[in-house]
Design goal:
By secondary structure, this protein is an alpha+beta fold. 25% of the residues lie in helices and 30% in strands. It has seven helices and 25 strands. The strands form five sheets. Strands 1, 2, 20, 21, 22, 23, 24 and 25 form an eight-stranded antiparallel sheet that branches. Strands 3-15-18-17-16-19 form a six-stranded antiparallel beta barrel. The protein is elongated.
Length: 454
């Protein structure tokens, strides 16, 4: 009995201990949960408090900032007024060669196919006189110095200005024309033409000239008259050898219009070579510029008074990066595209502004020769229109103001932040700056800060 009671007590004690431990565990767990919830609510409150503003705080945050001044330094430099506008390079006047026939030579038969058998020039190249540029049916196309166009075949016995031009060209290239009179294609000119073709590696072209035929006819007539005066007995004795015999005109040297082209300025620039070996001649085989490239600028009429002949110009082709210098050659009158006043640029092949607005054509000449990379390029032209003789004191134009008393002033901000009005006189303005000179009794030093805005 005693043992059973003791066991019962032990069991009761253990049950009581378990009950007490379970209560303590539940209390601790709820305590931890409550602490976590409190922390979360506290963090949420702090976060939401950032979005809550009082009316005073909202007004303070939306209030305009305190007014301040914008300043710029006083500088001393040379003032330059630059005018920038667009321009276009053009080929100017050009001349093309289209062979229409093949000259006869003493070397063989005369072909008629008109096929390109050689191309020796390329676009943009500068070519000299009496050098084969293109070859058709093994005959050369070449340039010679001269202003008159090649409008006919030049043959022995012909006379004219074009003959005199040919003679001058031959002599300038080292082939004398003998005793031929100026403007007359004689034996001396023919010999010079032969030497020119030999230097190029070709046989000289031949033709039956009218003078040769006339001379042969006159000789035949004279011989016939002499035979008529001979006694019949002489004829019977076999002396009838004086009787004229029909003869063909002897071939003489010529210069075909299909082979030569006169160009005023040499070396000449090749504008285009639209053929390849094997092509049939159906049009121009080569086009040459009669002079150097021309640059025409399109100036806004409002800036016309800023540009004068002789001013230095800087040229830049943005597409290729090529740069050059030149000078203003001429300044034209205002041109309005489509109104009939744009004929001044049509002769040189210059384009007009793409926007179709009125412009002043400004011709720019090169200090030497234009780079061939400028051909047909749209470029930027910069011209220094005005400049001071030396460095001057200058401030931004916005820093200068005029009061009701017509006194011009600038406002200087001192180191302490105070603002001091300084009377000045103004001079040249350029690129946003204006020359200023302080009125006697006032000073304005380089580096001083002047007010340009608020």
């Amino acid at each position: 009995m005693k043992r059973s009671r003791a066991r019962s007590r032990e069991a009761a004690d253990e049950s009581a201990e378990v009950t007490v431990g379970s209560r303590l565990y539940r209390r601790r767990r709820w305590t931890v949960v409550a602490a976590c919830c409190a922390a979360v609510l506290s963090a949420a409150g702090m976060f939401s408090a950032q979005w809550v503003q009082s009316p005073a705080e909202a007004a303070a945050r939306t209030r305009a900032p305190r007014p301040s001044v914008i300043t710029a330094p006083v500088v001393r430099q040379v003032l330059r007024n630059s005018v920038v506008f667009r321009g276009t390079f053009s080929n100017g006047r050009t001349i093309s060669v289209t062979p229409t026939s093949v000259a006869t030579t003493e070397n063989g038969s005369q072909p008629t196919a008109l096929l390109i058998t050689g191309v020796f020039a390329r676009t943009g190249q500068r070519v000299k006189a009496a050098r084969p540029l293109v070859e058709y049916d093994e005959r050369p196309v070449f340039a010679l110095p001269g202003t008159l166009p090649m409008y006919r075949n030049l043959t022995v016995g012909e006379k004219g200005k074009d003959i005199a031009q040919l003679q001058r060209g031959l002599r300038s290239l080292g082939w004398p024309t003998g005793s031929d009179a100026s403007g007359t294609f004689g034996s001396g000119t023919a010999a010079a033409v032969r030497r020119m073709y030999a230097a190029m590696g070709y046989a000289a072209p031949l033709t039956a000239s009218a003078d040769t035929a006339s001379a042969n006819a006159a000789s035949s007539t004279a011989c016939a008259g002499a035979a008529a005066e001979q006694p019949s007995s002489d004829i019977e004795k076999g002396r009838s050898s004086a009787t004229p015999r029909a003869t063909e005109p002897e071939p003489t040297v010529m210069l075909p219009a299909s082979e030569a082209v006169f160009v005023p300025s040499l070396p000449a620039r090749v504008v285009s070579v639209p053929v390849q070996v094997g092509d049939t001649v159906k049009g121009p085989v080569i086009t040459l510029a009669r002079g150097d490239m021309t640059l025409t600028g399109f100036l806004d009429p409002s800036e016309r008074r800023l540009i004068a002949t002789g001013m230095k110009a800087e040229i830049l082709a943005e597409a290729t990066g090529v740069q050059a210098t030149g000078a203003v050659d001429s300044v034209g009158a205002v041109v309005t595209p489509g109104s009939g006043t744009d004929k001044t640029t049509s002769d040189s092949g210059a384009a007009t502004p793409q926007n179709g607005s009125a412009y002043v054509p400004v011709k720019i000449k090169s200090t030497g020769r234009w780079d061939k990379k400028f051909a047909d390029q749209d470029v930027r032209i910069t011209i220094t229109a005005a400049a001071t003789a030396g460095a001057v004191t200058a401030v931004p134009e916005a820093a200068v103001s005029a009061g009701a008393d017509a006194l011009t002033t600038v406002t200087v901000v001192t180191a302490s932040g105070a603002q001091l009005s300084v009377p000045v006189t103004v001079g040249v303005s350029a690129d946003g700056l204006v020359q200023v000179t302080p009125v006697r009794g006032h000073t304005l030093r380089v580096g001083d800060r002047v007010v340009v805005g608020k």
